Structure formats: C-alpha cells, structure tokens
Amino acid sequence: MNSAVEEHITILKHKDFKSDYKPVWCAGCGDFGVLNALTKAMAALELKPENLAMIAGIGCSSRIPAYTSAYGFHGVHGRALPLATGLAVSRPELTVIATGGDGDGFSIGGNHFLHACRRNANLSYLVMDNAVYGMTKGQASPTTACDWTGSKLSPQGTGQPPLQPLEIALAAGAPFIARAFSNSPNELARIVAEAIEFEGFAFVQILSPCITFRPEQLGWKKRVHEGFEPTDDRAAAFAALAEDDGFTTGVLYRAPRPRYQPERRESVDIETIQKRFEVCS
Description:
By secondary structure, this protein is α/β, with parallel strands linked by helices.
C-alpha cells in the first residue's frame, strides 16, 4: 500500500485496556489476576475499547468494568446477564462481556444464568468463584463446601451440598463451558480469549481465591491442575465432570449452535417514542 495513503493502525497493549482507576481489592485477591488476563486477551485479539462493553452486577469481582477502558455498566445484584443479553442482541457488532462472582451469578442471579445458557446470545460470562461472599464480610455462598465453618452465620457449616456451576451450565444448554485459575495467567488469558471469540454464550468459571476470608485458599495453587479436553459430546462432558475434583481446568465443552439473534427492527426517533406515552387529557 502506498505510504501516502496507508492507514495508521495502532496496536494496543494490555495496559491500554486498563482505566486510570486503581482496584480496591484486598491484597492477594485473585481478581487482580483475572483483570490482567482479561486485558491481555483483549490485546491479543486486537479488540478496540470503543467496541467493547463490560457488564457487571454486584460484588468484589463486579468492579471490573470500572478498571477497564471499555464501556461499562454496573447493574443491580444478579442482573448482569439480562443486561448483557439485551445489549448483545440489540448491538451485535459489539463484543459483550459479563462479569461477576459466585454469589451474584449463582444465587440471586441463578435464574438468569440458566436462561442465558439455553438462550445462547453472543456474549461471554466470566464468573470469579471464591466460594464466599467477600464484599459482605465472609458469608457462605452457593459454591461453599457444606463443612466450611469459617462464617459466623454458619459456624457448623451450611449442611448443604455446593452448587456445581459447570454441571448446571451443561445441563442448561451452554455451548461453551470452561474453568480456569486466576493464578495461571497464561492459561486463563487463553481461555478468556477463546470465550470471547466463540459465537454464542461462553461461560468460564474462574477459581479466584479470597485469602482475606478464606486464607486456606492459598493452597489452591497446589490443587489446581489442567485436565479438561474440549468435546462436543455432552455425555463425554458429563463423564468428565463425574471424575472432576473441582480443580480441573481447561475448556470442557465446545459445541457451536446458532446463536440467539432476533431480527432487529428499524430504529425509531425519540419524538415518536415520546408520543406513544402521551396521556390524553
């Protein structure tokens, strides 16, 4: 191409996807690793911040949109997925990423998680799972083991089996399911990039330690191991989960199917919309 007319192309680095706001997470929080891996994935995919939308609910991990240079929306508790779905189907040219934690995503937002899996809109959902409510000072979450006695609200443990996000996502129809670890930056960045590139709903459970309220999670480094091999066979994926110890990482299931994309109507100007709501005197 003639240099006089060659278009100037700027290659962004991962730091270009970070905002000027400094994270307020506790020292040692796994969410720092998630933020770094996410911005590395964005840079590797050569995305543009102005074409990115980060949607979150409530919780420590849901602060991530403020720490990126993309467009962001901090919604109410448990409602990240309906917001992200609406944006994804109305603005299909955007890259939409929803983020949250195990409480936000699997408790109050659990119903939306089920339907997002089956609906299959084109968005990625990154859930930072630390099996505790960190922002509200250490209560048990849906993924907390039944015998964890570290909470004053359940000093004898919850007595309830922990929710299994990957099994639920597979049963509900999610076409892309993976698990990663916040302290494995290269693998995490690779899996996040795969999720973003996937056409449809991509769910990634990210083991992200909260060493403030769950200091024993420092031991996750020794327990996490790679092992999942991508398959498009649901029975094989369920079989892999039957042998899973909760610390296996990798892409478990990848079975593309037509994404949910309703026909877009022509845009209507604001004056026309206002007239629809006029009250006759």
